[in-house]
Amino acid sequence: MTNHVHLVFRSVKGQHPALLLGDFKRFTSKAVVKAIQNNPRESRKEFLLEQFKKAAEKSSNVDSHQFWRHDNKPIALWSNKVIQEKVSYIHNNPVEAGLVSKPQDYLYSSATDYAGGKGLLDHIIVFQYFG
Fold first, then answer.
1. 59 CB contacts (<8 Å, ≥6 apart)?
2. DSSP code of 102?
3. Which GO terms describe its molecular function (predicted)?
């Protein structure tokens, strides 16, 4: 479950979602690589950075470290029903993977909040596009 991320966002009218997603991926990949490089307690530092460098060598549009995959599967969230279906799918991923028996038991999931508990995050992270 730690090898992928589900991102839910809305682009401002007139902005192409792909541009927002590209900016998000560039910003976060640089921040993650920098955090790994600058963390003296990261025991996997050399391994991770080497993997990111190897992936970058296979890509024509990445300079030094490839953190995100280039492909993605965007899904338009056009109704409350579709949103609820996708939230349920995301929350059930750890159950389907056999990591927990209930979605709210997965430490890194917002399912705890949906079940009336208190999850790990206090705030929703907002990335604003200023393209």
1. 66, 70
2. S
3. DNA binding; transposase activity
Element (H, E) at 90: helix 80-96
Mean pLDDT for the stretch of residues 42-55: 94
Does residue 68 share a domain with residue 37?
yes
* 41 and 61 together in one domain: yes
Specify whether 70 is located in the same domain as 82: no
Residue range of the domain that includes 23: 1-74
Summarised one tens digit per residue, pLDDT across range 61-113 is 788 899 888 877 777 777 888 888 988 998 999 999 999 999 999 988 888 88
Task: Name the domain count of the chain.
Answer: 2
Q: Look up tokens 């998000």; give the residue.
A: 24
| 53 and 110 belong to one structural domain | no
Q: Among candidates 72, 74, 69, 67, which has minimal Cα distance to 27?
A: 67
What's the Cα-to-Cα distance from 92 to each of 56, 112, 129, rounded to whole Å?
Answer: 32, 12, 30
Contact (Cβ atoms closer than 8 angstroms) between residue 55 and residue 66: yes
